[in-house]
Amino acid sequence: MTASATQPTRRAGRRRSRATFTSVLGELLLTAGVIVLLFVAWQTWVGDIIISAQSNSEGQAISKQWAEAPAPEPPPAVEAEDGGIRYEPPVLEHPDDGQKFAQMLVPRFGSDYNVAIAGGTSRPTTLDNGWLGVYDQSAMPGQVGNFSVAGHRTTWGFPLNRMDKLRLNDAIVVETPEGWFTYRFRNLEYVTPDAVDVLLDVPQMPDVATGERYLTLTACSPLYSLAERIIGYAVFEGFQPRVEGAPESLTPVDDVAAPSW
Question: Considering Cα of 55, then 61, then 63, then 65, what sign does the dihedral take?
Answer without folding.
Answer: negative
